[in-house]
Design brief:
By secondary structure, this protein is of the alpha+beta class. It contains three helices and three strands. It is globular, with a radius of gyration of 11 Å.
């Protein structure tokens, strides 16, 4: 399975928890070991979005997918 597909699969498992709090996350791209995701809804402006990114999304993706070295928020 391609890395992008693995990331999308894991993100789909994380989304219900964020949606429950009025937010969401969307996978944007994978480039040079970095997965870029976009925080949506309440997550986009939440004071805890950095914590959600580092403690939840990044921790899960880097532990489950060896090719993912880090996760960064994608900003338009």
């Amino acid at each position: 399975m391609k890395v992008e597909d693995q990331i999308k699969e894991i993100i789909e498992k994380i989304r219900p928890f964020l949606i429950n709090d009025g937010g969401d996350v969307e996978f944007v791209k994978f480039e040079n070991g970095t997965a870029y995701v976009k925080m949506i809804g309440n997550c986009a402006n939440c004071l805890y979005s950095d914590l959600t990114m580092s403690e939840t999304i990044e921790t899960i993706l880097t532990s489950e997918i060896p090719e993912v070295i880090k996760v960064e928020e994608y900003r338009d």
